[in-house]
Amino acid sequence: MTLKELFSKVKFENLAPWLIKFDPQSETCLWLFKQAFDRMRQIPVGEDDGVTIDVKGWRVWSPTRESWNVELAREIKAAKSAPRNKVAAAILWELTFWGFDIDDKPRFAADDFQSRFEYGRDYDESELDENPYRREWTELWQQEHDLECRNPKDIGTKFFSCEDVEDMFAPLPPETEALLKPISEKKEAVEKKMRRYDLATELIRQHKSGIKDPEKFRQFIMDAPTFNVDTIKAVCPMEETSDYLSDLIYQWFPTMEGDFSLVLINCPEGIDARDIAETVWGAFGSFRKIPKPKYILSQSAEVKEVVLTVLTFGTEE
């Protein structure tokens, strides 16, 4: 049986208890697992590369990590006595290790400026001025790195090296720690501003038709209390969007603690955006999943499915 065939034979509501049993933290993000599961059931199967996915208990071994399309074509090898839902849950958990959607990437391969800089990948000098906090952050990052270097040859690079691994984790001299502390604290503060500025820029780009005053919105994000950002996607046929979102919010999205929240709704062209907005308002209002929500409604040719960005304020950032 291939992974695609397995996923077509199981339901997510039967996988969820296994996910929670294996990793209790999964209960806080079940809607993301549900979206990933639905995405894998939706996308086409890639070519069979002859590799099997071996499952033993919660251990999943797939010797070469490939795209979800290729993974779906692979045969599954598991004990006959293994519960089908447990096997499916174990594979789903493994395949979402780096992200919950098909284009998600680990930090070392991500395309954002911060990831490329930290992992020593190429960036244009002009990018430093796209965000007013980037240049200062890169300087602080390098100062922090250089103070933490055990090998003098690593100063000025993005990496650490040593002849003995234990040296890499050896305590720094007290005088170095004293120098490092204020730099690290300042870097953390500047990084917070940098990330907020980037988030505001991206949300303004995504919600051009809904955010009427971009600079006022940016200032709101920059000055707001701490917040979490979550994304909900309607991974379903367009005509099923309202029912999908209502069910996803009700059954799988957790109740968020905080002082207030903002939901940005981005709808593709060809769908009744007002109808979707009423569904989202009704779902969050009836099920009381988020505190004191406000809404911004947008419609864009760039998105192919409804995407909700949920900002919950008064929580840890």
Structural features:
four-stranded mixed beta sheet, alpha/beta, 7 strands, three-stranded mixed beta sheet, 317 residues, globular
Short summary of the structure?
The protein is α/β, with parallel strands linked by helices. 45% of the residues lie in helices and 14% in strands.
Give the termini separation: 43 Å
Task: Figure out the total of helices.
Answer: 12
Secondary-structure-derived class: alpha/beta
Query: Order of strands side by side in the largest beta sheet?
Result: 4-7-5-6
Shape: globular
Mean pLDDT: 95
Estimate what percentage of residues fall within beta strands.
5-15%
> What's the β-strand tally?
7
- H/E element sequence: HHHEEHEHHHHHHEHEHEE
Radius of gyration: 23 Å
- Low-pLDDT stretches are none
Largest sheet: 4 strands, mixed
Relative helix content: 40-55%
Write up this protein.
It contains twelve helices and seven strands. It has helices spanning 3-9, 12-22, 30-42, 68-73, 84-95, 113-118, 134-148, 165-168, 174-206, 214-223, 241-252, 273-287, and strands spanning 52-56, 59-61, 75-78, 227-233, 260-268, 293-300, 307-313.
